[in-house]
Write a structure and sequence with these properties.
The complex is a heterodimer of chains A (378) and B (282).
Chain A (H helix, E strand, L loop, with lengths): L5 E5 H12 L1 E6 L6 H10 L6 E4 L3 H13 L3 E6 L1 H17 L3 E9 L5 E5 L6 H4 L8 E3 L4 H18 L2 E7 H5 L1 E5 L44 E3 L13 H16 L2 H4 L2 E4 L6 E5 L3 H14 L4 E6 L1 E3 L3 H8 L4 E6 L5 H9 L4 E6 L8 H11 L1
Parallel strand pairs in A: 2-3, 2-4, 4-5, 5-8, 7-8, 12-13, 12-15, 15-16
Antiparallel strand pairs in A: 1-9, 5-6, 7-14, 11-13
Helix pairs in contact in A: 1-2, 1-6, 3-4, 10-13, 11-12
Chain B lengths: L2 H16 L16 H15 L6 E5 L14 E4 L5 H11 L4 E7 H7 L1 H10 L4 E6 L2 E2 L5 E2 L23 H8 L3 E6 L3 H13 L4 E6 L3 H7 L5 H11 E3 H4 L4 H4 L3 E8 L5 H12 L3
Helix pairs in contact in B: 1-2, 2-7, 4-5, 5-6
Classes of the chains: A alpha/beta (378), B alpha/beta (282).
Chain lengths: 378, 282
Amino acid sequence: MDNCRLRLLQGNAACVYGALYAGMRFFAGYPITPSTEIAEVCARELPRVGGRFIQMEDEIGSIAAVIGASVSGLKAMSGTSGPGYSLMLENIGYAYMTETPLVVANVQRGGPSTGLPTKVSQSDTMQARWGTHGDYTAIAVAPSTVTDTLTETIRAFNLSERFRTPVTVLLDEVIAHSRAMVRMPVEGEYEIVNRVKPTAPPREFVPFEITPNLVSPMPAYGEGYRYNVTGLTHDLHGFPTNRADEIFVKLDKLKNKIENYVDEITKLRAEMMDDAEVAIISYGSVSRAALQAASIARQAGFKVGAVQLYTIWPFPDKEIRELCGECRKVIVGELNMGQIVHEIERVLGGGVEVHSLQRYDGEILTPAQMLAKLEEVL
Amino acid sequence: MTTVDKKVQQNSSVVLDYLRPVKKFPNVWCPGCGNGVVMGAFIRAIDKMGLSKDEVALVSGIGCTSRLPVYLDFNSLHTTHGRALPFATGVKFARPDMKVVIITGDGDALAIGGNHFIHACRRNIDVTAILINNYIYGMTGGQGSPTTPGGAFSTTTPYGNVEKHFDPCALAAAAGATFVARATVYHVPQLEKMITQAIEHRGFSLVEVISNCHTYYGRLNRQGDPVAMLQSIKDNAVPVARAKKMTDEELAGKLVIGNLHTVDKTEFCDEYQKVVEAHKVK
């Protein structure tokens, strides 16, 4: 192994290095625990690669600046935690509507309100799907380790560029503040996706045209393709519309450009699931405890497996059905009062017994707690 | 054809060159609204400066005024309520070679966007904000704004406004803006000149444009039709040079127009570029 490429990194720093690898050259943010190091590392690293960092007056301004930079052609991101994510959500909705690629890392802490700034949580899982008003389809990914954080942030940028949409990286305080040795990727090791640019001459350019994969080519400001960007529901030319026959076209596009390609987005990890009678389903830092608990249970002779969701949204219905449809029971472990468990109940549809293992006191779910839950349900 | 007629024809043909080539007229504004006057002045200013349409980004928030960029053939970004300035900050910082102009109203810039307004001034980022001040929320139907004068009527101040109002120019200058001017929709050549100077200025520039909302402000405060409101704007305006010779009492209730404040300070994108040059890994 090439030791020169090993670095001791905190999860928040790994997020930044993943973003830089993916081509991120613009960061706007506002200090908030436990995500602040993302901004700090960006402030230090971005000028070194000719990029731009700005500390805005609040999270609303931060995400607005990120969108402004993205329509101007830069890969852009922000990093925040629950309260800041709440503030950003109106403009994240603007980015859904205007089909602007960007990445937001939400390092989750306990809530509601100011909650537990320094304590771990996964209680923004549903917020990442439904947080802004209106109908849309969201993409969110969830790493579980420091190394994952680097690679999942690369994936988040690729997805945002591929689908012209905001992508949330759902981190949590445990991953963000864990330190681990990370092998820094070399050029070419991971595929980097860039938004498709228009090839039509500007006169024939239709900014929100319906293409075969429903993603319209996106020029940057200043490239000769002058067009209107608006958060109002708009027609193919980007003009506000109130016409019923134009409204549903736009909303269908926002949904179907993602949901028709869910296979490109879904990512799960299944361990010991071939003959599993019980599955522990989890995501984020909880997955590490889940994997250990499943291994211990296996050694004790129980047919237990673990499923980790890397893609949270859109929800991997098909894969969960395939992996867990034959299980007798599943346990869904989450650091909240039960959010993804409802998706699992919906997908497994009563055929499988679904148990919720929750923790929301600011502490992590331990393998011992998982084993205790296994004992209870077996 | 008289000289005046010829001038009018020339001006309208210039304006037509800058409207979006496809559909979307009539606009949303009431007949007699000052927004169209500002749009015309802006277009003539851009045209005379010889800026290409591609190098101009026009950013706005929400409100009657903020609809302006939608009709114009530039890179236009019609954003969320109050947030035009941070969106514009992102555009300018990503593309410092572009001219970024914000079109905003008194509610958009000073109420919901008040925090962004003072911070954009403080940073002295090289963008131009054209703030059309008609003392009221038009699009939502005549509610009080941060510039609604004390005692004035609106649908949310039905017994007269008990609040104090902002002076956007004084606020901008105090917050660090390096070019501040006030113009009106009556004094059109001067409006065009102020917009030109603001765009040419390196740093944060504000042009407050006093305008008429006869539909709501005028009706609720018995100020008459557009012509009567323009007359009153004209009667109340005092050029900055003359204002300097007037006492505070003489200036009470008057609108001082012209270039109110210009200072030379380093600009945000320039300063950041120095950091990049110093620390970039070659």
